[in-house]
Specification:
Elements: E1 7-13, H1 21-33, E2 37-42, H2 62-73, E3 76-80, H3 90-100, E4 109-114, H4 123-136, E5 139-147, E6 155-156, E7 161-162, H5 165-180
Parallel strand pairs: 1-2, 1-3, 3-4, 4-5
Antiparallel strand pairs: 6-7
Helix pairs in contact: 1-5, 3-4
Organism: Actinacidiphila polyblastidii
Keywords: Oxidoreductase
EC number: 1.-.-.-
Length: about 180
């Protein structure tokens, strides 16, 4: 009998907002796929120092070292970020800037979930994310970069998890696609 290897998945939210739908989607992944993945959530965007190229060397700031170690330990990366003023939120761009100087994302299968229900569908943020991931050497898995609208009503306010069955099924499919690309 062949045993399936548990896959490690970095779950990186681009939101600092309490009650963020983007973060709720990522927090829901472990409950959807159970033992099929070992989640490595990174939800500490606000803890990262402002990027400064003068500080991008050993020893790295502690939070940057923690972020890079988390990415290095992952088999794949899944991002979920809102759009702010037509682009990536500044705090999330700061996180991505800290990954440019390292090699942790090189050839790492990467995808994202776009949960926007807005008319523009957060297209600017996800186009920018694709560009930055290209600079970091990440391998963007197009089939794992999806628009999956998640209305606030699909998130249980008490648990902060997605409860809508259709959204959960679609989320599971995206994660499986991403992990199959490794």
């Amino acid at each position: 009998m062949t045993q399936t290897r548990t896959r490690t998945l970095a779950l990186i939210s681009g939101s600092t907002r309490a009650g963020s739908t983007n973060t709720a989607v990522l927090r829901s992944v472990p409950g959807i796929l159970g033992d099929a993945i070992r989640p490595l959530p990174y939800l500490d965007l606000a803890s990262l120092p402002h990027f400064n190229p003068d500080d991008d060397h050993e020893p790295l700031p502690a939070e940057v070292a923690r972020l890079r170690a988390l990415i290095a330990d992952a088999d794949a990366l899944l991002f979920c970020t809102p759009e702010y003023a037509g682009d990536l939120p500044g705090s999330f761009k700061n996180l991505l800037d800290w990954t440019v100087g390292g090699s942790e994302t090189t050839d790492k299968p990467s995808g994202w979930i776009n949960v926007s229900t807005a008319p523009t569908l957060a297209a600017g943020a996800h186009a920018a994310l694709r560009t930055v991931l290209g600079y970091t050497g990440a391998r963007v898995v197009d089939a794992a970069c999806v628009h999956l609208p998640v209305p606030r009503t699909a998130v249980d306010q008490a648990t902060g998890l997605v409860t809508d069955a259709a959204v959960r099924d679609a989320l599971a499919a995206v994660v499986r696609t991403l992990l199959a690309a490794d």
